[in-house]
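Two entries, shown back to back:
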Amino acid sequence: MMALMQSLVALSIDAMLPALTEIGQDLGARAANDSQLIVSFLFLGLAFGQGVYGPLSDTTGRKPAVYLGFTLFLVGSLLSLLATDLNVMLGGRFLQGLGLAAPRCVIVAIVRDQYEGPAMARVMSFVMTIFIFVPAIAPTLGQGILLIAHWRAIFATLLGCGLLTLAWFALRLPETLSVERRIPFSLARIKAAVIEVCSHRVSLGYTISLGLISSAFLGYLSSAQQIFQKQYQLGTMFPLYFAILALCIGSASFVNGRLVMRFGMQNLSRWSKRFSTVISLLFFLYVLSTGGQPPLWTMMGYMMIILFCFGIMYGNLNAMAMEPLGHIAGIGAAVMGALSTLISVPCGILIGHSYNGTVIPVISGFMISGVLIVVVMHWVETVPSEPVSETD
C-alpha cells in the first residue's frame, strides 16, 4: 500500500511526458522549454507541502494529514483537467504537488514508526522498487491514452487513481502513531525541530545529497521527452526507452533491499557514488567530443549505469538521514523532504531549461551533482558522529 501511494507521485509526473509538447501548444506556451514547467511545478508543490504535513501528522496522526493531501491533489487534478491556459495548468500542477507531498512525506514517517536502521532501508528499497516500476509504464499509459483520446484524459485518469487510492488507504491502513506519542502543534516546537534537523551533521549531509541526486534526475525528467522524441527522433517509441531506464532504478532498489542487511547502507552508498561519479566524468568528456550528440546506444548505456547507482543510493540515503530522527519522525521527514526538494527544483529547472538540442546540459547535471555528492558525503563520513539524543 505504501509503495502504491508513493507511486501516485511517479504516475503524476511521468504519465504526461509524451504529451508535454501537445499540452504546451494547446495552452499557448511561448517557448518549447516552457512545457517542462508542467513537470517542475509539481515538484515545487512537493517542496512546499512537505513542510506542512510532517508537523501536522505528528499532531493529528498520520491518516488525517494524508486525507488533507489527497483532497488537494484531487482539486489540482480537476483544475489541470479543465485548464485553458498554461498558467491555470501550472496552478493545478502546483496543487497536485502540494497534495502529493502528504503521501511522499508521511509514508516515510509511517515506515519510521515501525522500523529503523537497515530494516527501514530494506522496506524503503522495496517501496522504491514499485515506485520506480510505475515510471516504467506511466509514459506508455500516457502515450496509449493519446492514441485514443485527448491529453485531458490523462488528468482524468489521475483523478480516478487518486480516488481509488484514497479509498483503499482509508479502509485498510490502521493509524501508526498512537495518541500518547502525538505532540501538540506548536510553532516553537517546529522551529526547534527544524534547528535540530539542520544542525545534525548526518541528517543534513545526507539530505543535501538526496537533493543533489534529485536535481540531476529532475533535469533529466524535464528534458527526456525532448531528448528521445526530438533529438533521437524516437517518436512513439519514447516510452519504451524511458521504461528501460526506469527499470534500472527499480532493479537497483530491489538489489539494495537484498544486499543492505549484509553490506550496510554506508558501504553500498559509498561505492555507488564513487563509481557513478567516475563514469559521469568520463562520459561528459566523451559527449563533448561528439558535440553533444552521442550515439543512442552510448547514451542508453550511460543512463542505465548512472540510474542504477542512483537507485542504490536513494533508499540508503533516506534511511541514513532519518536514522537520528526517530523521536521527531514526522517533522524530520518533512524537513528532510522539503530541503532536498527545494535544492532539486531550482537546479532541475535550470538543467532542463538549458536544453539546447544536445545532451550536454543533462550529462553536466549528473556530473556536477556526482562531484558535489562525493564532497558532501566525505564531509559527513570523516567527522566524528554526534552523540545520539537521550530522547531518540
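entry 2 starts here
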Amino acid sequence: MEPRFTLTDNEIGARFAKRFGTASLAIVQSPLPKVVREQVSLRVSQINGCGWCVDVHTKELAAAGEPAVRINLVAAWREATVFTEAEQAALALAEEGTRIADGRPGVSDDTWARVRKHYDGDQTAALVALVAQMNSANRLAVIVHQKGGAYEAGTYAS
C-alpha cells in the first residue's frame, strides 16, 4: 500500500493542516498530563488502525520516559495492572468516544463519572477535544495511506 496523497503538498490541504495543528495547541497547552494525552492518542489510533499515528504516539510515549510495558499494554489496558485509575478513565473515554458507531450508546454514564472523578473541567474539555481530534487525524492519515515507521519523537513539539 503506497501513500496516495500528501495533504500538505496541496494549498488547501496545507491550510487545513495548519489550522488543524493550531487547534491542537489548546489540548497540548492544557493541564492534561502529556502521558495521558499520548496514551489516549495511541489507543484511539490503535482502534482506528492508523499506522502513522500509532508510530507517532508510541515514540512520543517512549521519549517521555514511559517504560515499554506501559506502552505495549495500552492496547489491552483493561487487562493490565500498570495504569492508574485516572489513566483507565481516560482510556475508557477514548474507546467509547471512538467506537460510537459500534452500537454503543456513546460514552457511558459510568465512564463519564470516572472521568469527572479524576479530571477537572479544563482537563475534561481537553480529553473530549483530544478524542475528537485524534479520530479526525486518524481518518486523514488512513484515507491517504500515510504509513508509520519514519516518525522521530519531538517532530511536532514546536
